[in-house]
């Protein structure tokens, strides 16, 4: 996975993930339980039924990350002129961010009553897709291991018409 559950917890998305990943027929997971679940910490102090709901939420979140990673891989496989070998290893940090943004959007897809132009979830999702398209078009680099040659490599080329006034054509007009 390009984004990890710990990275989602580090991004302060614990409460939001508990709200969107808990199934509709269950009580929303306690923030502390969601945090412990995301970080893989001990959850023995919570009742078994709540831990089961948290595990179901983790499955939902993990599927969203896998779907986001598939979207990213689709763009990177179409990179022109040299496609990336996917999955990326090591994962550039920007790709992890894009994976989180896309997964977050996928988890929120059923949300209603928000304005698309002011919604940060939609804004981040569209931003990720924009940069993925730029990457696929060869206009955005993922870093030092990028298979594209660096811009400006080689000698500068000059394209101009032949010179009209030279030393030879002006020698009759000299002193």
Topology, element by element:
Elements: H1 5-10, H2 14-21, H3 31-39, H4 48-77, H5 93-107, H6 120-136
Helix pairs in contact: 2-3, 2-4, 3-4, 4-5, 4-6, 5-6
3D structure, described in words:
By secondary structure, the chain is an all-alpha fold. It has one domain (5-173). The protein has 6 helices and no strands. It has helices spanning 5-10, 14-21, 31-39, 48-77, 93-107, 120-136. The chain is elongated and about 100 Å long. The mean pLDDT is 86.
- Biggest sheet architecture: none
Specify the overall morphology.
elongated
* Rg of Cα set: 26 Å
The oligomeric status of these chains comes to single chain
Q: Specify the number of helices.
A: 6
Would you list the SSEs in sequence order as H and E?
HHHHHH
User: Can you tell me the residue ranges where pLDDT is under 50 for at least 5 consecutive residues?
Assistant: none
State the domain count: 1
Mean pLDDT: 86
Helix content bin: 40-55%
Percent in strands: under 5%
Write down how many β-strands occur, each being a DSSP E stretch of 2 or more residues. Answer: 0
**N→C terminal distance:** 78 Å
Keywords, please?
single chain, 175 residues, mainly alpha, 6 helices, 49% helix
Characterize this entry briefly:
49% of the residues lie in helices and 0% in strands. With 175 residues, it is mainly alpha-helical.
């Amino acid at each position: 996975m390009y984004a990890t559950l710990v990275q989602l917890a580090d991004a302060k998305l614990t409460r939001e993930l508990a709200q969107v990943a808990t199934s509709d027929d269950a009580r929303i997971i306690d923030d502390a339980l969601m945090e412990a679940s995301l970080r893989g910490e001990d959850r023995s102090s919570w009742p078994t039924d709540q831990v089961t709901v948290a595990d179901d939420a983790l499955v939902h979140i993990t599927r969203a990350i896998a779907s986001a990673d598939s979207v990213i891989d689709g763009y990177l496989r179409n990179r022109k002129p040299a496609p990336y070998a996917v999955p990326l290893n090591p994962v550039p940090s920007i790709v992890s961010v894009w994976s989180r943004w896309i997964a977050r959007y996928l988890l929120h897809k059923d949300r209603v009553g928000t304005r698309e132009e002011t919604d940060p979830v939609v804004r981040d999702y569209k931003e990720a897709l924009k940069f993925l398209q730029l990457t696929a078009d060869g206009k955005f680099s993922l870093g030092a291991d990028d298979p594209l040659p660096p811009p400006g490599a080689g000698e500068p080329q000059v394209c101009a018409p032949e010179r009209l006034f030279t030393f030879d054509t002006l020698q009759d007009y000299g002193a």
